[in-house]
Amino acid sequence: MSKLLIVGTVAFDAIETPFGKTDKILGGAGTFIGLSASFFNVDSAIVSVVGEDFPQEYLDLLQQKNINIEGIEVVKGGKTFFWSGRYHNDMNSRDTLATELNVLADFNPVVPQAYKDAEIVMLGNLHPLVQSSVLNQMTQKPKLVVLDTMNFWMDCALPELLDVMKRVDVITINDEEARQLSGEYSLVKAAAKIHTMGPKYVVIKKGEHGALLFHNKEVFFAPALPLEEVFDPTGAGDTFAGGFSGYIAQTGDTSFSNMKNAIIYGSNLASFCVEKFGTQRMEQLQKEEVLSRLQQFKSLTQFEIELE
Amino acid sequence: MSKLLIVGTVAFDAIETPFGKTDKILGGAGTFIGLSASFFNVDSAIVSVVGEDFPQEYLDLLQQKNINIEGIEVVKGGKTFFWSGRYHNDMNSRDTLATELNVLADFNPVVPQAYKDAEIVMLGNLHPLVQSSVLNQMTQKPKLVVLDTMNFWMDCALPELLDVMKRVDVITINDEEARQLSGEYSLVKAAAKIHTMGPKYVVIKKGEHGALLFHNKEVFFAPALPLEEVFDPTGAGDTFAGGFSGYIAQTGDTSFSNMKNAIIYGSNLASFCVEKFGTQRMEQLQKEEVLSRLQQFKSLTQFEIELE
C-alpha cells in the first residue's frame, strides 16, 4: 500500500445553485481530494490548517475514511478558511460571494514524520510557496508529484508557480488556465509548451467536456459522464485529482497506460461529486456504485471497428 | 453497395479566418457531405441546385468522386447560393458577412429515378419543406433517414421542422440547438425530449468537444481529435454527417453498435476537413490517412482497466 500525501485546504463552503443554497458546510480542496482518494486502498494523509471553529465531527469524518489528519493544524482562537459562491444557470460559471482566508493567510504546512517518504504527493490548489514547502520536507524523492493550480496564482505568484512546476511530474489545470499559462489557444500546443516548463504529464480539465492527458506526443481523453442534472459542481476538479492520485497510489504504476485508467477513475468519481451539495455524495459513495459507473464509461467510449 | 441519397446546398463560400481569406470557393452542405461519404464504398447522389455561374470543374470534381450529379439542377441565368463568413480568433464563433440565396430561394428538389429507392437518405441542412419533399419522392421506405438542421429553422419554420422530424430516424444538431429545440439545458434530458419528437437516434455535435449519440437509455461519445491548429471549421459538421451516413451506407448496418463506429468515422473525417480552407483537404484525402487517424482515435479513447 503506497503512501499518498495530500496538501490542500480544509474549509467551510457556502454554495448557491439554481437548485438551492447551503449554510456553511464542509469543503476545501484537501477535503475533496482526500475523500475521493479514500475510495482506493491507500495510506493517505492531509496537510492543512483549520481554526478553532472547525467542528470535530468533520475531522472525525476524515479519520473514518482512513485519512491521517495529524498534519491538519488546528489554530487556537483562529477561524477556518471560508469560501462562498453562486453558480449561474448553466452551472459552468460562478460568482465568488466571499473569500475569507483567516488561518490560511499564515499557513505553514508541516508534513508528519511518517509521510515524509510518501511515494505519491498531491499538491492541491494553494499558494505555490506552500506547495514548494511541502516538497522541501520530503526526505525521499517521491515516485510521482501531482500539482493542481489555478489562474489566480498565474496572476499573483507566477515566478513561484514556475519554480514549483519544475519539481512536479503531473500538472492538472483547466483549459482556460492552460491557455493563459502557455499563451497558446490550441490545447495541443499549450500542453507542449507546459511540458517545457517541467511537468512531463499535462492534464487539461474541460469540466463537462472531459479531460485530456498529454505526454510528449501521446494524448488520451476521458469524457465526463453525460448527466441528467449537475446539482453542485463544487469540488469536482479536486475530486478528479483525488481519484487520479489515489488510483496511482493504489496501483503504484506511473506508466502512461496506467495514467489513462487514473483519469477515467478521476472522471468517474467527479461524476458522483456533482450529484449533491458539497461532500454529501462522496461521503456516502459505495465501491459498487463506482464499479457500475465504470461500466458506463466503457459503454460510453469503447468501440470495435473492423478494418478491411 | 447501398445507395446514399444526399440533399444539401452546393454553393460558393468566401471565408475569413485568422489565417487568411479566400475568394469564392466551392462550398455547401451537400458538397461536404458528398465528399466525405465518397470515402466509403457507396453509390451516392446529390440533389441540389446551382446557377449558370457554377464552374463545370466543380461538377466534374464531384463526378470524379463517384457522386451522381443528375439531381443537381443548373438554373439557366441563375446565380449560385453564396455564403460568406468571418471566424473569430477562437474559431468557435463566426459572423455571417453575406447570405445570397439566389437559385436556392425557389429550390424544388427532384430525386433522380434511380435513387428513389435509396436505402440511406441524408437530409442536409435546408428548409424542412425541401427535406420533406425529398422524402415524399421516395418509392420505398429507406432503411435509415438522417436529418441535419439548425437554429435558423427552429426560429422560422418550427412547425415544418417538427413535421419532417417525425419521419426521420436520426437527427444531428449542435448542443445549443438541442437545448433550444427541447427547452432542456442538460443534454441527456434534451436528447430524451427530442426522442419523443420522432428521431430514435439523437446525435449532438459539440464541435471541438466531440459528439454524443443517444438512443433511449444508451449513450456513446466520440471525441474530436485534439489538433495543433484548426485552419477553417467551415463544413466540419457536414463532413461529420457525410462520414456518419456514408459509413452506415457502406456497412448496411443500422444497429446502435455500428452507429458508434459511424460517429467515430464522422469525427475522423471532420478532423481532416478543418485542416485547410474549404473542401481542399477533403479533395486530396487518401484512405491510408483516414485509417492511420483511426488508430489515433483508438489511442485517444481506448483503455484497459482490470477490475479487482
Automatic annotation (TrEMBL), chains A, B:
SUPFAM superfamilies associated with the record: Ribokinase-like
Domain Carbohydrate kinase PfkB stretches: 21-281
Entry keyword annotation includes Kinase: yes
UniProt keyword annotation of Kinase present: yes
Pfam families: PfkB
Transmembrane segments: none
Molecular-function annotations in GO: kinase activity
Signal peptide range in chain numbering: none
Alphabetical list of InterPro entries matching this protein: PfkB_dom, Ribokinase-like
Swiss-Prot/TrEMBL keywords: Kinase, Transferase
This protein's name: PfkB family carbohydrate kinase
Organism listed in the record: Flavobacterium nakdongensis
